[in-house]
């Protein structure tokens, strides 16, 4: 008598706890929702730029020389954020590598049965990858002029790598190459920043190089350089993450 | 100050509804890959929304990173977990039991 | 009140008188008790005979230093108590050595002999001695309480701790006695008195039946003789205190004799009438009956 | 008439709530991470929506928007810059969580978060 | 000066550089890591030196060549420099302690480590809100990564799960943070913290409302990083599972950085948000301490403690409105104390192989590490001379000055609970069986601990100097008595006899130096504390070898005592009080089985000390200095409260009934020569406190209750119950301990009489109790030492074997019982004269009852040990060691002298007391002493009794000249010879009838009460911790619930 009842009640309890959990979650989220709602209802769109934004809109062209104000903010005005952001990615990639490096699969674990990659995909990818890489480079080199920049370009570069991975799952990336690329671009980024302290107005000041004419490729001081470094670094980091996650065996 | 054109309004509304629908799908989907794809769709739609909101930089980033790379990361991990073979076949087991319990209600 | 050398022979005289009176009184009371029980009783000089016999015994043994000193402590306590209190009111001769201290000295000196005795008996190594002592201490610690309360009621009443002054305050007629001016205190004190006299119903300490004779079990010969000497002096010394505090003191030896006799008789009378208590029973009895009286006496002053 | 920004913002908030709900109720680690990416997207939408201003253009200076009248023509660029950072950081966290999930699965052969409670009290 | 920016760039450059190294060049990578961290520390140290030594304003660091708020700026000032130095040094030493792990994991782990440290510095330095977010995210990710460091050695996936839980929670936090930041930006138009702080008050209407909501989100998100209760389950799992060296960073550095971030935020929010910070902080402080009570895992316990301390500091930050300029001094003192101590403890934890608290007993063989541990826990509990003490003092005073009593009470309550588990732990270390695993003695790990230790003492010095500069108080570390005590730490390797000589010389020299300063009243105490102390120390010559740890503890106690009587203001007094408490705790803990008793001692003492602190604080009312004599000027309604607090505090030390349960165990289990110190000497400190209190405040009316009458009752009941309980003890030293309780009751009663004779009697008790209780503890201790037991019924018949001890005991009990002619009688005589003047009669009845009871236990003491039947196993027992007997004999001499000429001491005191109680003094005529009621002539009594006694003795000798000594069993025992001494020695359950009659009075009500209190606390902690289910999702629920509850409560009460 006892056993069936207890199993029954266990199951019921589990279901009940689920129900309770959901109910509490809904209740809590309702409260969060009211908080959000009051934010939303209290929101009045600006009709004029506030003084910070106004400063950027007015002064970017003259001071920084970048056509894309967002880029100017990202790379110069709030360059420290971006450096931090790159660092975040850097340590994420490092940790992902660390986590997965420790996790060696037992050698007798069954190798993953892979679907043979179709001819079309492998050929296509080989042809497409250089183009994609080129596109990525274009995006980050032109970051100060057009939408896009280091992050977007880096992501595009990484998707090129992704394509290669898809085409040839067993392909081994050179971790050392990625790592050197990552480190060098990072070091240069910091180095340029420090040079700004020494030679220009402060850390990450873009006026190390002449700011040139608005709208030209070689303008906006070191912004294109930095954005390119960011692009390389981000691309390398994404690639290293993808590679770490995709490789079933340690290199 | 030009009034918002009905077209833009309509597009935005559709985008928002799509996003919310996709998000709900991602939460409620029975199969994990579907959920991941739905989440990717949310990002993709969001990047269009960013364009509408005059934020092309963000739109590009969201499209490339949010919907692209992230989705791939998920699939890589999923593949590795399935490949690892430790009960990888019923990776959704916990939630399926959960969902079944719900469907009886 | 100060010392001069004449006090010494006077004090010795007091001791002598009280010693003899105590021996006779003890025998007399015992005889009265026997007659009440339709027995013949001991001869009136029996205590003298016992004393001489014990002092005269040739063989004697000792268990050690404290054993040896026990009776000395005991008798010192008795004599000291007697001498620290004036015996006859208004008499320079019999004011004894009371210049050394007041009532508190007397009250605390009671314990001098008890403590020495307990130590001496303890060294004998006889368990019965120890058992008797624990019973005695247990009982006394509570029995003394109403007495102490009564004493303080009296001291508060007369605003002095000097025995002479207390007696002086009670002169001029019987109605000035504390007995009538503060009956509650006297009642409490008299109940305590019963407890301290080692007579039934509070005599389980020396328990004649179960344990040979309590603390003095191992004592004999001259040791026992010293104790017997003390047994003559000590109760009288105690009753002198009662007499002085509650019953107007004594201005002459006859008055002294009568009052002490009556007090002694009181304890003997109760002892004949009531059966013996166990120690915890007597503790409770004192706490329930005597102590509240003492408390009331103190509050009432 | 609600503005575009408000509509987007509302959608963003709803996405956040949906994501939170998923993260709170799904016991599968991967599903929790999926839920978080949805919430992240919602946060990003809210951020961008806050900076949106009716009738203005993207903060990029070109022929259409000369530097001189940028102040009157472009929308607030700051939120966009912040969102860029937020997206990338979000990806970092997601990748990290995924790596954790992978490793946890390798260790414990389960993805159920309710079964990872050795440490408690 | 190198720009503080390079703290960030150096770390980043080094981290990025790691990628260029080969995977195998791990040594090089580790070297780079250390050098970089050292470089970062050097930058911070340079700035700290600049700001501390010169009056330099904080320095702004601009980036991007643009002024804030348009570009991110950093700022370094005094606080920033100190915090970054803390962070970087913690990072450096933790990296050292992590050497093995880092080398095994390679360059990537080191890069993450560098970034983590850098990110924390960034949190401190940045003045931009979003930049703060970025650094926080960096910290979160680095933390999640570094938690994995322990995975290397421990393959159970716990750290993995903990890291994941952390990530889950931080996702919620960062969502709130981002939303808050963007709305705050939207309303104020800036991301700069200072800009926002300037703009926020100007907002109005809906913008103000929106800003307040946004700020709430930011605030709560950053506060959530402080692991507030209850949203902190994840943090505990991290503390438990992570590598201790990382936990050190996580606790010390992350906590510090997050707190500083909250501080910056409060700058924006303004005073309106302070109550919320205080509320969250104090609840966290109490709850985390409560939850720490039932913990058995050292790291989890440290985790709870970290959370608690962080909560406390948050609460302090929330009091900034009243702390004003002192916020930095107070919060900084608490924060640095916490950080240094916690880092040190976590590093220590890395040396210990197992996780149970008892496993730390392995430390016992390492005096330096023990010293480190002690320093750390004293630092955490805020004992002098550590910074936390100064901070606590000022904090409590400021709170009391503003009438924030509830908060004050909660802080002290939490601190007491914290002291409870920390000192319990120390008890385990000193007393529990050491595990087989030895301490990991690797130099690079020990270095970290030593560094923390050095930092702890250096900070004490700094805070002492600051207290001199800011408040004109003394620097405790430079107080001569304390320095002298601390010197013994360095002298510890010397042989005990040498140190003993030094100690005695020190006490006497101090007395010589200071004796002119004391009035007669203080002189009594000075003589007891210093001369008496050196007399007791004579007994310590019996110890052989090195006696490690004894002298620092003892001299700490004596230092406290010496400082106590010289103290003129409340600060000095309280410092001395704490010192003597701690010193005596260490002394008591030295006993073999004293672990639980030492714990209850320190808890009661600290509880009492906290009450005293509260009392002083209330009395001070914000004044910078408060002379003890100024207590007299207090008026209603404050005065009775002050009186009450102080009186209870002092009565804890004198073991008044209800607060007495610590005493018997503590005094009984202490070492032979320690018992007289803690009983004969230390108890007097409590009386001294009461005397100071009563002299100044006297009678106080508390809602119609005359407080002095309450004390009278307490004294009487204490005397009764103390004596009664002494009767039933089988353990000789416990008997003496209970007797002390009773004696202290008498003394309190005397003081509470508030008249001339009462005080005289109390002071007489002070002297007498010192003499006879020291003597009795020594002689009984000597016996216990020789027989190896303290159970009296197992002894017996020792009089012939230990005659000197017997004589000391005999004289002692005669003196205690007050039987004439010895000195105890003098005390009784004064006492009875004193109570004749008392108005309250009922307590008098109780104290009467207590009197004769003393005879019972005293007789038991001497009879069962020295008289009765000697046991076979003790037939070869020798007299106690010379050095234990010697002081006893000196005490005997003192007792005899005082008995004959009590005027030697009493006269001076008597005439001194005339200044306070002009009426009712004694009259001294020749050798007769007269009061208004009676008279007493000690010389005459001694002569009379002596003459009678000697005469009778001579007479007995004469009539008994042939008496012969017989053997032990030659007694009349039911006509048989007894079989064995064990069955013949009547000793066990000695006063059985008494127990039957009055046993109900000895029900351990107080013990039951206090154990119920501790049980309740434990149960509460144990139940509450079930709340932390270990499920990361539950923790997310907690977080959301926390946010929402604070939202509802916090926003509900806001305008």
Q: What does this 3D model show about the protein?
A:
The complex is a heteropentamer of chains A (251), B (105), C (301), D (121) and E (1055). Chain A contains eight helices and no strands. Chain A has helices at residues 2-41, 51-64, 69-77, 79-102, 119-141, 150-167, 175-199, 223-246. In chain A, helix 4 runs antiparallel to helix 7. Chain B has one domain (6-84, 94-104). Chain B has helices at residues 6-28, 32-52, 56-84, 93-104. In chain B, helix 1 runs antiparallel to helix 2 and helix 2 (32-52) packs antiparallel against helix 3 (56-84). Chain D has 121 residues and is mainly alpha-helical. Chain D is 66% helix and 0% strand. Chain D is built from four helices and no strands. The mean pLDDT of chain D is 87. Chain E is mainly α and 1055 residues long. In chain E, the strands form three sheets. A three-stranded antiparallel beta sheet of chain E has the order 5-6-7. The longest helix of chain E is centred in the last third of the chain and has 32 residues, at 756-787. The mean pLDDT of chain E is 90. Classes of the chains: A mainly alpha (251), B mainly alpha (105), C mainly alpha (301), D mainly alpha (121), E mainly alpha (1055). Chains C and E meet through strand 1, helix 3, helix 4, helix 5 and helix 9 of C and helix 32, helix 33, helix 34, strand 7 and helix 37 of E.
Task: Summarize the SSE layout with pairings.
The complex is a heteropentamer of chains A (251), B (105), C (301), D (121) and E (1055).
Chain C: H1 7-36, H2 46-56, E1 61-62, H3 65-84, H4 103-123, H5 127-158, H6 163-169, H7 178-181, H8 183-196, H9 221-246, H10 253-273, H11 279-300
Helix pairs in contact in C: 1-9, 1-10, 2-9, 3-4, 3-9, 4-5, 5-8, 5-11, 6-9, 8-11, 9-10
Chain D: H1 4-25, H2 29-51, H3 70-73, H4 78-108
Chain E: H1 5-18, H2 26-53, E1 59-62, E2 73-76, H3 78-97, H4 99-105, H5 107-125, H6 129-147, H7 158-188, H8 193-199, H9 205-224, H10 233-241, H11 244-269, H12 274-292, H13 298-317, H14 320-323, H15 327-349, H16 367-380, H17 387-402, H18 405-431, H19 443-471, H20 480-490, H21 496-514, H22 520-538, H23 550-566, H24 570-589, H25 595-620, H26 638-653, H27 663-669, H28 674-697, E3 701-702, E4 705-706, H29 707-727, H30 732-753, H31 756-787, H32 803-817, H33 823-836, H34 842-866, H35 882-900, H36 903-913, E5 923-925, E6 928-930, E7 935-936, H37 938-959, E8 964-965, H38 981-984, H39 992-998, H40 1005-1025, H41 1032-1052
Antiparallel strand pairs in E: 1-2, 3-4, 5-6, 6-7
Helix pairs in contact in E: 1-2, 1-5, 2-3, 2-5, 3-5, 3-11, 3-15, 3-19, 5-6, 5-11, 6-7, 6-11, 7-9, 7-10, 7-41, 8-11, 9-11, 9-41, 10-11, 10-13, 11-13, 11-15, 12-13, 12-18, 12-40, 13-15, 15-16, 15-17, 15-19, 16-18, 16-19, 17-25, 18-25, 20-23, 21-22, 21-23, 22-23, 22-28, 22-31, 23-24, ...
């Amino acid at each position: 008598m006892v056993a069936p009842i207890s199993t029954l009640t266990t199951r019921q309890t589990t279901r009940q706890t689920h129900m309770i959990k959901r109910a509490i979650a809904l209740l809590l989220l309702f409260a969060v929702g009211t908080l959000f709602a009051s934010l939303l209802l209290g929101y009045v769109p600006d009709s004029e730029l506030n003084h910070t934004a106004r400063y950027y809109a007015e002064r970017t062209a003259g001071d920084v020389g970048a056509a894309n104000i967002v880029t100017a903010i990202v790379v110069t005005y709030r360059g420290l954020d971006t450096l931090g952001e790159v660092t975040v990615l850097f340590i994420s990639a490092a940790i992902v590598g660390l986590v997965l490096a420790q996790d060696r699969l037992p050698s007798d674990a069954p190798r993953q049965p892979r679907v043979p990659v179709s001819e079309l995909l492998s050929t296509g990818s080989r042809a497409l990858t250089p183009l994609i890489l080129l596109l990525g480079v274009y995006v980050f080199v032109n970051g100060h002029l057009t939408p896009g920049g280091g992050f977007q370009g880096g992501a595009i570069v990484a998707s090129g790598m992704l394509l290669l991975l898809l085409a040839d799952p067993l392909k081994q990336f050179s971790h050392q190459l990625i790592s050197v690329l990552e480190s060098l671009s990072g070091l240069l980024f910091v180095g340029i920043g420090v040079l700004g302290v020494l030679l220009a107005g402060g850390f990450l000041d873009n006026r190390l190089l002449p700011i040139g004419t608005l709208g030209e490729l070689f303008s906006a001081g070191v912004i294109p350089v930095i954005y390119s470094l960011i692009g390389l670094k981000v691309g390398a980091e994404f690639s290293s993450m993808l590679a770490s996650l995709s490789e079933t065996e340690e290199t | 100050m030009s009034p918002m054109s009905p077209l833009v309004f309509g597009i935005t509304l559709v985008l928002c509804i799509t996003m919310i629908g996709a998000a709900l799908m991602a939460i409620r989907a029975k199969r994990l890959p579907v959920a991941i794809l739905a989440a990717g769709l949310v990002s993709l739609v969001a990047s269009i929304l960013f364009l509408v909101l005059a934020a092309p930089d963000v739109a590009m980033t969201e499209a490339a990173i949010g919907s692209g790379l992230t989705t791939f990361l998920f699939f890589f991990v999923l593949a590795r977990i399935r490949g690892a073979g430790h009960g990888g076949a019923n990776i959704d087991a916990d939630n399926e039991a959960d969902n079944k319990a719900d469907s009886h209600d | 009140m100060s010392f001069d050398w004449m006090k010494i022979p006077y004090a010795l005289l007091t001791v002598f008188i009280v010693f003899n009176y105590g021996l006779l009184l003890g025998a007399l009371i015992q005889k009265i008790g026997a007659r009440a029980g339709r027995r013949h009783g001991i001869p009136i000089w029996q205590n003298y005979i016992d004393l001489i016999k014990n002092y005269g015994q040739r063989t004697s043994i000792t268990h050690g230093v404290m054993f040896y000193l026990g009776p000395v402590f005991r008798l010192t306590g008795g004599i000291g108590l007697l001498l620290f209190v004036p015996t006859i009111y208004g008499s320079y001769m019999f004011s004894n050595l009371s210049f050394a201290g007041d009532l508190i000295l007397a009250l605390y000196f009671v314990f001098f002999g008890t403590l020495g005795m307990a130590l001496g008996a303890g060294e004998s190594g006889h368990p019965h001695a120890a058992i008797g002592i624990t019973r005695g201490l247990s009982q006394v610690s509570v029995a003394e309480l109403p007495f102490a309360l009564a004493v303080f009621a009296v001291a508060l009443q007369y605003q002095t701790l000097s025995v002479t002054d207390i007696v002086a305050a009670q002169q001029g007629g019987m109605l000035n006695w504390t007995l009538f001016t503060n009956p509650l205190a006297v009642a409490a004190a008299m109940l305590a008195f019963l407890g301290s006299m080692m007579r039934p119903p509070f005599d389980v300490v020396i328990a004649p039946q179960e344990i040979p004779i309590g603390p003095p079990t191992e004592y004999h010969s001259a040791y026992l003789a010293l104790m017997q000497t003390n047994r003559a002096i000590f109760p009288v010394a105690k009753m002198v205190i009662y007499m002085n505090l509650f019953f107007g003191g004594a201005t002459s030896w006859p008055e002294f004799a009568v009052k002490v006799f009556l007090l002694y008789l009181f304890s003997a009378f109760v002892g004949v009438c009531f059966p013996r208590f166990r120690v915890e029973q007597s503790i409770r009895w004192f706490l329930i009956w005597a102590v509240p009286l003492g408390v009331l006496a103190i509050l009432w002053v | 008439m609600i503005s575009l920004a408000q509509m987007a913002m509302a959608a963003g908030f709803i996405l956040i709530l949906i994501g939170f709900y998923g993260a709170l109720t799904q016991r599968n680690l991967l599903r929790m991470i999926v839920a978080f990416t949805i919430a992240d997207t919602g946060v990003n939408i809210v951020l961008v929506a806050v900076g949106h201003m009716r009738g203005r253009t993207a903060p990029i200076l070109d022929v259409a928007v000369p530097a001189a009248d940028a102040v009157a023509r472009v929308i607030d660029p700051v939120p966009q810059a912040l969102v860029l950072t937020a997206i990338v950081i979000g990806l970092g966290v997601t990748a990290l969580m995924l790596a954790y999930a992978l490793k946890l699965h390798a260790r414990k052969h389960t993805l159920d978060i309710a079964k990872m409670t050795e440490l408690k009290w | 000066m190198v720009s503080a920016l390079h703290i960030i760039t150096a770390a980043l450059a080094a981290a990025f550089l790691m990628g260029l190294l080969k995977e195998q060049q791990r040594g090089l990578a580790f070297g780079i890591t250390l050098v970089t961290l050292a470089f970062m520390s050097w930058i911070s140290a340079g700035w700290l030196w600049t700001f501390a030594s010169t009056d330099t304003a904080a320095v702004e660091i601009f980036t991007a060549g643009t002024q804030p708020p348009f570009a991110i700026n950093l700022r370094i000032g005094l606080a920033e420099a100190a915090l970054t130095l803390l962070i970087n040094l913690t990072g450096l030493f933790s990296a050292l302690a992590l050497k093995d792990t880092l080398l095994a994991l390679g360059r990537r782990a080191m890069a993450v480590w560098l970034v983590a440290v850098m990110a924390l510095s960034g949190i401190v330095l940045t003045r931009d809100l979003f930049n703060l977010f970025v650094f926080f995210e960096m910290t979160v990710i680095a933390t999640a990564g570094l938690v994995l460091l322990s995975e290397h050695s421990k393959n159970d996936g716990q750290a993995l799960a903990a890291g994941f839980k952390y990530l889950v929670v931080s996702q919620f936090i960062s969502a709130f943070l981002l939303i808050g930041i963007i709305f705050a930006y939207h309303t104020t138009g800036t991301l700069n913290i200072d800009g926002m702080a300037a703009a926020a008050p100007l907002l109005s209407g809906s913008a103000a409302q929106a800003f307040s909501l946004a700020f709430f989100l930011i605030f709560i998100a950053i506060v959530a990083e402080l692991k507030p209760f209850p949203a902190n389950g994840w943090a505990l799992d991290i503390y438990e599972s992570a590598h201790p060296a990382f936990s050190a960073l996580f606790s010390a550095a992350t906590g510090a950085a997050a707190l500083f971030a909250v501080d910056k935020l409060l700058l924006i929010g303004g005073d309106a948000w302070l109550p919320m910070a205080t509320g969250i902080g104090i609840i966290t402080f109490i709850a985390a301490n409560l939850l720490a009570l039932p913990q058995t895992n050292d790291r989890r316990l440290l985790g709870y403690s970290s959370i608690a301390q962080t909560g406390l500091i948050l609460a302090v930050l929330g009091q900034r409105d009243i702390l004003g300029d002192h916020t930095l001094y107070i919060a900084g003192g608490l924060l640095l104390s916490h950080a240094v101590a916690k880092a040190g403890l976590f590093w220590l934890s890395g040396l210990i192989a197992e996780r149970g608290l008892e496993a730390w007993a392995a430390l016992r063989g390492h005096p330096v590490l023990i010293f480190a541990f002690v320093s750390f826990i004293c630092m955490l509990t805020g004992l002098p001379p550590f910074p936390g003490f100064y901070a606590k003092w000022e904090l409590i005073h400021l709170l009391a000055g503003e009438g924030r009593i509830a908060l004050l009470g909660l802080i002290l309550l939490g601190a007491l609970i914290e002291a409870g588990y920390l000192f319990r732990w120390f008890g385990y270390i000193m007393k529990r069986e050491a595990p087989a695993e030895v301490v990991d003695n690797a130099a690079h790990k020990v270095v970290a601990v030593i560094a923390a230790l050095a930092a702890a003492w250096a900070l004490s010095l700094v805070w002492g100097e600051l207290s001199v500069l800011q408040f004109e108080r003394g620097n405790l570390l430079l107080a001569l008595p304390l320095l002298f005590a601390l010197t013994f730490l360095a002298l510890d390797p010397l042989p005990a006899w040498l140190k003993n000589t030094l100690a005695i010389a020190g006490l006497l020299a101090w007395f010589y130096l200071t004796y002119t300063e004391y009035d007669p009243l203080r002189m009594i105490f000075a003589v007891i504390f210093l001369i008496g102390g050196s007399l007791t120390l004579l007994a310590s010559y019996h110890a052989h070898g090195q006696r490690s740890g004894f002298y620092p503890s003892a001299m700490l106690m004596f230092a406290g005592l010496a400082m106590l009587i010289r103290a003129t203001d409340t600060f000095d007094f309280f410092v001395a009080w704490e010192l003597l408490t701690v010193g005596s705790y260490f002394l008591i803990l030295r006993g073999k089985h004293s672990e639980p008793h030492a714990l209850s001692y320190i808890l009661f003492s600290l509880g009492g000390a906290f009450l005293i602190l509260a009392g002083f604080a209330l009395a001070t009312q914000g004044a910078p200095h408060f002379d003890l004599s100024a207590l007299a000027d207090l008026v209603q309604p404050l005065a009775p409260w002050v009186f009450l607090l102080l009186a209870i505090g002092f009565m804890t030390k004198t073991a008044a009934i209800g607060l007495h349960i610590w005493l018997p165990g503590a005094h009984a289990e202490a070492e032979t020569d320690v018992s007289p110190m803690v009983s004969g000497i230390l108890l007097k400190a409590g009386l001294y406190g009461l005397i100071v209190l009563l002299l100044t405040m006297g009678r106080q009316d508390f809602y119609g209750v005359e407080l002095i009458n309450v004390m009278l009752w307490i004294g009487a009941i204490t005397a009764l119950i103390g004596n009664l309980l002494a009767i039933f003890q089988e353990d000789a030293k416990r008997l003496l301990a209970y007797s002390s309780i009773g004696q202290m009751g008498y003394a309190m009663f005397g003081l509470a009489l508030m008249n001339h004779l009462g005080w005289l009697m109390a002071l007489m008790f002070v002297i007498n109790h010192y003499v006879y209780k020291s003597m009795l503890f020594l002689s009984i201790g000597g016996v216990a030492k020789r027989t190896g037991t303290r159970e009296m019924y197992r002894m017996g018949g020792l009089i012939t074997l230990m005659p000197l001890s017997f004589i000391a005991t005999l004289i002692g009990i005669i003196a205690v019982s007050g039987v004439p002619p010895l000195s105890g009688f003098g005390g009784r005589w004064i006492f009875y004269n004193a109570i004749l003047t008392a108005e309250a009669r009922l307590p008098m009845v109780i104290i009467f009852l207590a009197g004769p009871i003393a005879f019972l236990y005293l007789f038991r003491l001497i009879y069962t040990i020295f008289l009765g039947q000697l046991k076979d196993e003790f037939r070869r027992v020798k007299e106690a060691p010379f050095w234990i007997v010697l002081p006893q004999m000196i005490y005997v001499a003192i007792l005899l002298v005082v008995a004959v000429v009590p005027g030697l001491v009493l006269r001076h005191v008597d005439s001194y007391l005339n200044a306070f109680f002009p009426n009712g003094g004694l009259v001294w005529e020749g050798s007769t002493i007269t009061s208004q009621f009676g008279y007493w002539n000690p010389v005459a009594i001694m002569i009379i009794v002596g003459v009678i006694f000697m005469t009778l003795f001579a007479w007995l000798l004469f009539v008994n000249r042939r008496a012969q000594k017989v053997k032990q069993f030659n007694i009349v025992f039911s006509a048989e010879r007894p079989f064995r001494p064990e069955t013949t020695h009547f000793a066990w359950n000695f006063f059985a009838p008494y127990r039957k009659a009055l046993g109900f009075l000895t029900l351990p009500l107080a013990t039951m009460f206090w154990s119920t209190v501790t049980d309740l606390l434990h149960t509460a902690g144990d139940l509450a911790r079930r709340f932390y289910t270990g499920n990361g999702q539950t923790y997310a629920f907690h977080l959301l619930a926390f946010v929402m509850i604070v939202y509802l409560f916090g926003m509900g009460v806001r305008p």
